[in-house]
Amino acid sequence: MNNDRRKVLKGTGGMAVMGLAVSAGLFKPGSAWAQNWNKAAFETKNTADTVKAMGGSAAAESKDIVITSPDIAENGAVVPFTISSRLPRTESIALLVEKNPNVLAASFNIPAGTEAGVTTRVKMGQTSNVTALVKADGKFYYTTKEVKVTMGGCGG
Amino acid sequence: MADPMKIRAAMSGDKVEVKVLMSHEMETGQRKDSKGAAIPAHFIQSVTATHNGKVVLSAEWGPAVSKNPFLSFKFAGGKPGDKVSITWTDNKGDKRTDEATVS
């Protein structure tokens, strides 16, 4: 299975082709059960578009958001991230991988009473800037960190 | 039906720390099989965690979340013996709910 994966990465000549496969309609609409899923946001190709798709206009850089992750990830298929926000009234936390075919990897809604910090693991196709996007008190803030990937995980 | 989640909920100071390991392929839709045909995307789209019926975390995921996803978070207001329940729904409409007791 791992062999196949390597072939795929080589055979398609990289992310651009894979990205096309997605926009060509692999994400079929009409999934009634996923009405809440923000399809537009998950199809964005850059951070600015993601902010817009999530209902914001612009995001400001903030030192009150902390991304904890390895600086160098050996296996891009499983890169652990912890994102925490010290911004008051944090409403949501999103994780964006800039060079993935679709930048938005995951978005978390934080109700009152829940700590503004989540840990999860995502795939990274290649070395990329990773952005944590936080909505706090109705405004968007972000912080960015570069994570080097020695073995891409875009094939899953 | 997918395999059960592993959920651990334990007091951490005055908060409940929840750790969840789900069993899911998280297929991106970008891989191809040996014949060159695209493998359709199959991934968890939404996750909801509730404590005593109140939502303590909800998430929307794309296919970039790793296979067999891991999730960890903390919430206030829980005590040992309380139930924490996690539900996920994937893009094919499969659903799974599992429950754990706070220790």
Between the first and last Cα atoms of chain A, what is the distance in angstroms?
11 Å
The fraction of residues in strands of chain B falls at: over 45%
- Tally the helices of chain B: 0
Secondary structure: helix percent of chain B: under 10%
Name some characteristics of this structure.
heterodimer, A: Immunoglobulin-like, six-stranded mixed sheet, three-stranded antiparallel sheet, 38% strand, B: 103 residues, mainly beta, Immunoglobulin-like, 7 strands
Protein architecture, described:
The complex is a heterodimer of chains A (156) and B (103). Helices cover 21% and strands 38% of the residues of chain A. With 156 residues, chain A is α+β, with helices and mostly antiparallel strands. Chain A has a single domain, classed as SoxY domain (Immunoglobulin-like, Sandwich), CATH 2.60.40.2470. The longest helix of chain A has 12 residues, at 15-26. Chain B has one domain (6-27, 41-101): Immunoglobulins (Immunoglobulin-like, Sandwich), CATH 2.60.40.10. Chain B starts with 5 loop residues before the first strand and ends with a strand. A four-stranded antiparallel sheet of chain B has the order 4-3-6-7, with no helix packed on it. In chain B, strands 1-2-5 form a three-stranded antiparallel sheet, with no helix packed on it. Chain B is built from no helices and seven strands. Helices cover 0% and strands 50% of the residues of chain B. By secondary structure, chain B is mostly beta strands. The radius of gyration of chain B is 15 Å and the shape is elongated. Classes of the chains: A alpha+beta (156), B mainly beta (103). The interface between A and B is large, with 50 and 44 residues.
Task: Give the helices and strands, then pairings.
The complex is a heterodimer of chains A (156) and B (103).
Chain A: H1 2-11, H2 15-26, H3 39-42, H4 47-53, E1 59-61, E2 65-68, E3 72-73, E4 79-85, E5 90-97, E6 104-109, E7 114-122, E8 128-136, E9 139-149
Parallel strand pairs in A: 1-9, 3-9
Antiparallel strand pairs in A: 2-4, 4-7, 5-6, 5-8, 8-9
Chain B: E1 6-12, E2 15-21, E3 44-51, E4 54-61, E5 70-76, E6 83-90, E7 95-101
Antiparallel strand pairs in B: 1-2, 2-5, 3-4, 3-6, 6-7
